[in-house]
What we know:
The protein has 521 residues and is α/β, with parallel strands linked by helices. Helices cover 23% and strands 28% of the residues. The protein folds into two domains: 143 residues, Sandwich (Immunoglobulin-like), CATH 2.60.40.1180; 370 residues, TIM Barrel.
Amino acid sequence: MNRRTFVSATAxxxxxxxxxxxxxxxxTVLLKEQIGTISPLVHGHFVEHLGGVVxxxxxxxxxxxxxxxxxxxxxxxxxxxxIHAPLFRWPGGCFADSYDWRDGVGPREKRPKRxxxxxGSGMLQKLESHPAKYEPNEFGTxxxxxxxxxxxxxxxxxxxxxxxxxxxxNDWVDYCNAPLGSTTWSQVRGxxxxxxxxxGIGNESWGCGGDFRPEEYSxxxxxxxxxxxxxxxxxxxxxxxxxxxxxxxxxGFFESLVRKSPGLLRRVWGWALHYYCxxxxxxxxxxxxxxxxxxxxxxxxxxxxRDHWAIMGEYDREHRVKFAIDEWGAWHKAxxxxxxxxxxxxxxxxxxxxxAGLTLDIFHRHADKVAMTCxxxxxxxxxxxxxxxEDKMLRTPNYHVFDLYKAHQNGMAVRTVFGAPMxxxxxxxxxxxxxxxxDNRLVVTCTHADAAEPLAVELRLExxxxxxxxxxxxxxxxxxxxxxxQPERVKPRELAVTVRQGRLVFELPPCSVAALEVTLG
Length: 521
């Protein structure tokens, strides 16, 4: 019997008091069937110089009346610390393949202004002068690194493969990693080395990053990663992976790389698959059918991982190369942005929160394959965790999902079986689990996709028993969202969990994301 579709035959008898109209679901955690450690990097984020992400989102300037740390919005730093944000990818995105890192170093008042890659897109065309259109380079490498350090995260820098040379890429590594005073670039940096490990070699090189064929890009990747000085830092190179289901890109890149020399696989740390599930309807206005349709598109991520993984294994039989899925999320139509320059800005609803939960659970279930991911993007853009404008900032429902899921970090993912009727084309009940041996703790997260009915769940542990448990749940109507006037409208609340004969019984509200922390007996 397929475990992903198994429904416990005894669930009805074991469920405790529940809503008279609640449907029934079951879940089983197989404590002894380990998958792999859930890297904190799987909960990573993406920062691009796009619309209001940097200017108005992260960077407010040192002279701003908005509380800041060295020009960086303090409220943002504080909230990111709370969710243990592990990693930030910067400066793009398509912007990265038009960015000269040298423009963003040295005295801020002497840095040049440049036309932003996105200047001709959407509403930015109508702006005469704005940092979103004409890049002032106030937020460069040192400022980004200060942001990362304040949060306590790791940096992931995306190199300009389309517009710069391999030598200029080497110089950026020098600038970031050389011991202070040892090289000219380290003197310009003027701080202790940043010790950057993660380097993206271009971005979407099948599109805005150069319109390459995979075989052509493989040559460029080899050239850019040949004899790069590490300055004692173990450099981890991440080539530009495919767009969604483009299996030919994966096959073409790895075939070309291995044909040149199988040893070249050692240069590849992660494979940067990008997948946006798109949109159905609008960001806030959509039908129930459109709600379910978008959830169905979101869970396609799992099949993409399986399909690309199989091809990677043809050339990398030991599967040393893992996924670095550094762009994912729902991408809605324009119309809900809070400021004219917030290109691709969208209000995050409970629908987006369920998508975030479904996607993170997929990554956890494939912890043996997925080493890093970055949700797109951090603030004011696409599937963001925050919306900020001038002195206002709010946490979207997506933020709360990352807060609920942070307990998984560094845990050992174990197999799970969820059973419930489908909700349209999407799984009604889905989730993931991780074991934390040091404190004898189990973490279970799950999503309940049904838009109207609650779900009574009995969760069984195979290979152990629950001693105690506590839970939190984020719930609301699919269109519910936070606003500057009501910033706490959607937020987690306590979930009642009963332990009965070593099993857990609880009821999930419609359209919800939940997290349980269980002490094992």
